[in-house]
Design brief:
This protein is of the alpha/beta class and 268 residues long. 55% of the residues lie in helices and 12% in strands. The strands form 2 sheets. It has a 5-stranded mixed β-sheet with strand order 3-4-5-6-7, sandwiched between helices. Strands 1-2 form a two-stranded parallel sheet. α8 (173-190) crosses α9. The two termini are 23 Å apart.
Length: 268
């Protein structure tokens, strides 16, 4: 995801490659960024030191935390002394799943102004949906963060209390779409199509329908669904089975379960 964010921002002109420092432990991944004109370092001290010396004003540059949540303690131990040494508060943007700003503020100290962000998988192709929320220490502005994540798709500003729900809907949402694709593909094969034909048909149907939903923003999903569902027709027969199975209620309950799990993980 860090790679998608960085390359998306560079491709969109939201950030110049020579204004970015990447801290990456793996040499092969550092080489990937360096081949694109982006400086990469093996430690936070090297990367932050280079960023500080190239900024117009020390402390202006944003730090993007794109690590696994379980790595936070180790990264904070390396990063916090550097922030304290700078003497200036610095914006820190975190995409750590299930990690509230209060925990980040505690780990990184008073020099860090925390903004939490949650992009989803389609950010890889710049069609993502990213939620952003400022922590207690965040003083804004939102301009840089909106520019950064706006290069990857839609940006929505929400209350941090809704982050678990956003993760359940938008973060996990692509998995639900892929799950539907699995089921449609199985159904197509069951009706006699070979696997390759079924794959082409299902991908096309989902891509076209998603595009239609996005383009016809003046029409709700229920209206578009109704426009395909003639009374007594084939679609009505299928939808009747889905309704009898209570599929919409199942989906609502699934989102609620994912939201609860997000809260549980944040408390661990």
């Amino acid at each position: 995801m860090a790679r998608a964010i960085i390359l998306g921002a560079v491709d969109a002109g939201a950030c110049l490659p020579d204004r970015i420092s990447v801290v990456e432990l793996e040499e092969a991944k550092r080489a990937f960024f360096e081949a694109r004109g982006i400086r990469a370092f093996a430690s936070a001290e090297e990367g932050l030191g280079r960023l500080t010396t190239t900024e117009s004003r020390p402390g202006d540059g944003h730090i993007l935390l794109a690590i696994k949540p379980q790595s936070l303690a180790g990264m904070a131990a390396e990063l916090r002394p550097l922030l304290d040494r700078e003497g200036n508060s610095r914006p820190v943007v975190s995409i750590l799943a299930g990690t509230p700003t209060s925990k980040l503020e505690s780990a990184l100290g008073d020099r860090a102004r925390i903004l939490r962000a949650m992009p989803n998988l389609p950010a890889r192709i710049r069609k993502g949906t990213t939620a952003i929320a400022g922590g207690r220490s965040w003083q804004g502005p939102w301009t840089q963060a909106r520019s950064l994540f706006g290069a990857l798709g839609q940006v929505v500003e929400i209350q941090e209390s809704l982050f678990d729900a956003f993760t359940a809907i938008a973060g996990s949402g692509p998995a639900y779409v892929f799950y539907l694709a699995e089921a449609l593909t199985r159904a197509a094969v069951a009706q006699g199509f070979d696997a390759a034909q079924a794959d082409v048909i299902v991908r096309s149907v989902l891509a076209g329908s998603s595009d239609l939903l996005a383009r016809e923003s003046d029409r709700q999903a229920v209206e578009l669904r109704a426009s395909v569902t003639s009374k007594g027709g084939t679609t009505a027969a299928a939808v009747s089975v889905l309704d009898q199975a209570g599929l919409q209620e199942v989906i609502v309950n699934a989102i609620a379960a994912a939201t609860r799990r997000g809260r549980e993980l944040a408390e661990m």
